[in-house]
Design goal:
alpha+beta, two-stranded antiparallel ribbon, 10 strands, 19% strand, 248 residues
Length: 248
C-alpha cells in the first residue's frame, strides 16, 4: 500500500507519496512525522525555478538573518538511488545532503529534504547535457583507474620514463572506454525526456541525490512557495512554516 503524508504548510497542504523502493528514506521520513520532528520548521531555502528546501530543526522560530541549513539529527542515511526509474521531475521529493568533497558516498541528511520545481528544457539542451554526462562518466572512470595505478605512475615519473607513462595512459584510456561501454551510455530515458521537456524538473541533479517520493496533490502550493520573495541567503522574507506532517 502506498505511503502517503500530508505536509500542512502556512501556504496550504502538500500531499506526498513515499516510494517503497527507497525503504530507508521512507521509514526515516515516517519516523520524523511520528516524532513531530518537522512540525514548526520552515522552508529555509527557496530558489525560484529550482526547488524549496526544509527540514532543518534549527529553523524553528529562527530569527531573521540566522544562518540555516546545517541542522539535523546526528545520523545520515545511505544513498538509495533508484535511477533512472525515479528522477528529478517537477514535484519530486528528494533528500538534501552535504557535498561530494566531504560526503563521497552521497549519504542523505537525516531530516532535510527538498521538493523540485525546476524548469522545462528543449530537446537540444538535454542532448547537450547527455554529452556532458558521458564526459563526466569517462572522467570519473579514468580518475579511478589512475588512482588504482598510482604507485606505478609515481615510479614512471621518478624514472622520467615518458614513453612508459604514455603507454600506460593509452592503456588506461582504452580501459576507460571499455568500462564505459559495459556500464552503458549515460543518457536520459524516454520517460525523462518526456518529463523534462513538458512538466519540467532539474535533470542535472539526477543520480546525485536520492529521490524518495513525489507530490501527489498541492503542486500549486509548491509553486506559490518557490515564487515567494527571499533574502540574499534564499530564505523567504515571510516565513513559510511546516505546521505539521501527518501520515494518511
Amino acid at each position: 500500500m502506498a505511503t502517503r503524508l500530508k505536509i500542512k504548510t502556512s501556504e496550504g497542504d502538500i500531499i506526498i507519496r513515499l516510494y517503497d523502493e527507497t525503504p530507508q528514506h521512507r521509514d526515516n521520513f515516517l519516523k520524523l512525522a511520528k516524532e513531530k520532528y518537522l512540525d514548526g520548521t520552515i522552508f529555509h531555502r527557496v530558489i525560484k525555478d529550482f526547488m524549496i528546501q526544509g527540514g532543518d530543526p534549527e529553523s524553528k522560530n529562527a530569527p531573521k538573518g540566522k544562518m540555516l541549513g546545517t541542522g539535523g539529527p546526528d545520523y545520515t542515511i545511505p544513498a538509495e538511488f533508484v535511477y533512472p526509474q525515479y528522477f528529478h521531475k517537477r514535484g519530486a521529493l528528494s533528500a538534501a545532503r552535504t557535498g561530494d568533497e566531504v560526503n563521497p558516498n552521497r549519504e542523505s541528511s537525516g531530516s532535510q529534504f527538498y521538493i523540485v520545481w525546476g524548469k522545462t528544457y528543449k530537446p537540444a539542451e538535454l542532448k547537450q547535457m547527455e554529452h556532458q554526462m558521458a564526459m563526466q562518466q569517462e572522467q570519473s572512470v579514468f580518475n579511478e583507474l589512475t588512482r588504482q595505478h598510482r604507485d606505478e605512475i609515481m615510479d614512471l615519473r621518478r624514472n622520467r620514463d615518458r614513453a612508459g607513462l604514455q603507454t600506460l595512459q593509452d592503456k588506461l584510456i582504452e580501459e576507460t572506454k571499455k568500462i564505459c561501454k559495459q556500464e552503458g551510455k549515460s543518457g536520459f530515458t524516454p520517460e525523462q525526456i518526456e518529463a523534462y521537456t513538458t512538466i519540467g524538473g532539474t535533470p542535472f541533479l539526477d543520480n546525485q541525490y536520492t529521490v524518495f517520493g513525489e507530490v501527489e496533490e498541492g503542486l500549486d502550493v509548491v509553486e506559490r512557495i518557490q515564487d515567494c520573495d527571499t533574502d540574499q541567503n534564499d530564505r523567504p522574507n515571510k516565513d513559510v512554516k511546516i505546521e505539521s506532517v501527518e501520515i494518511l
